[in-house]
Structure formats: C-alpha cells, structure tokens
Amino acid sequence: MGKWRVLNSEYTFKSPFGNLRNDTCEMPDGTVIENYYVNEYADWVNAIVLTEDEEIVLVEQYRHPGNDFYLEVPAGKVEEGETYEEAIRREIREETGYVSEQALIPLGEFMVNPATQTNNVITFLMFDAKLTHVQELDETEVLEVKHFPFAGMGEMIRNKEITQLFTVSAYHLAIDFIRNGRDED
C-alpha cells in the first residue's frame, strides 16, 4: 500500500464556495485513474453552544440540497487569516447573537469526507453563552435561533428531529467530554 502519484491536475470549476479539481492519478501498482474529481473546500468550524441554564443553542434553516429544514449547531467556514477559534466565535455571534467569556474547548478536528473532499470540520464546546448581540446574517442566510434542554438532545436525535450529521457528531463529542473530562497526560 502506498500513496497515489498525481500525474495531472486541472480545475474544472472555481467559486468562492469551493473548487472542483480533476486529477489523473497513478496507484502504486501502476494503475492510472483518470477523472478523479476532488472537491476543495475551506475548513469548517462548528460548536455545541450551551447557556448558563444548560440549554443548547441551535439554528434552524432551509437547506436546498436536502430540500428541508434542519436543526443544526452554529457553523461556518474559516475565513482567510482567522484561527479556528476566531472563526467559530464569529459564526456563533453572527448566527445567534451569543458570546461567552469562557475559553472554548476543542473537541476534535476531522476530515469531512477524504474520499472526495479536502476540508476538515473543527468542533468546539462553548459553556455559559449569553445573548448579547443581534444576528448579523449574510444576505442569503435565513435562520431561526432555537433553544432546547441539552439533556434532551439525544432523544431529539433518536426521534430524527435532528438529522444533520455534523450536529449529531458534535453532540456526541460534547457528551463524551462532559462525561469523561479532559484526558490526563
């Protein structure tokens, strides 16, 4: 087993949202793969946002590819020059109006889909969030802020009230952290 060698790489499409790249690759055994399409996206950040009252702050919005409304954790892409923490604090404030003075807890960094995509999703946990701002949404964002008891989120997932995968994985990462605390080195 070994890494593939890129013989040729061309962009099929470029946009501010992401790029589509067409690679020709050679496997270690010499097999050549033509037209291997790679989606290049910026890294994404998301967070479980918990209030002082142990409620989770979610956003509900219509997602065109899914043709439905989804309950999700606040999330967004990392903009040029931002750290992951700066990006998620900005996204939370813009989407929900919530901020916290507490340090964010990094829960993990994972490849979204390494078979076809280049980006990572970086997940955080925010405690003691307070509503201090009004929403500052992009012109194409229409979303409603919702609050639920965090203790009931697992049931919401089981009942398919929450079906967006990044939200489900963020919840499980947060529950694991809350139950087990930080790893002791």
Automatic annotation (TrEMBL):
<dbReference type="InterPro" id="IPR020476">
    <property type="entry name" value="Nudix_hydrolase"/>
</dbReference>
<dbReference type="InterPro" id="IPR015797">
    <property type="entry name" value="NUDIX_hydrolase-like_dom_sf"/>
</dbReference>
<dbReference type="GO" id="GO:0006753">
    <property type="term" value="P:nucleoside phosphate metabolic process"/>
</dbReference>
<protein>
    <submittedName>
        <fullName>DNA mismatch repair protein MutT</fullName>
    </submittedName>
</protein>
<dbReference type="InterPro" id="IPR000086">
    <property type="entry name" value="NUDIX_hydrolase_dom"/>
</dbReference>
<dbReference type="GO" id="GO:0019693">
    <property type="term" value="P:ribose phosphate metabolic process"/>
</dbReference>
<dbReference type="Pfam" id="PF00293">
    <property type="entry name" value="NUDIX"/>
</dbReference>
<dbReference type="InterPro" id="IPR020084">
    <property type="entry name" value="NUDIX_hydrolase_CS"/>
</dbReference>
<keyword id="KW-0378">Hydrolase</keyword>
<comment type="similarity">
    <text>Belongs to the Nudix hydrolase family.</text>
</comment>
<feature type="domain" description="Nudix hydrolase">
    <location>
        <begin position="40"/>
        <end position="170"/>
    </location>
</feature>
<dbReference type="GO" id="GO:0016462">
    <property type="term" value="F:pyrophosphatase activity"/>
</dbReference>
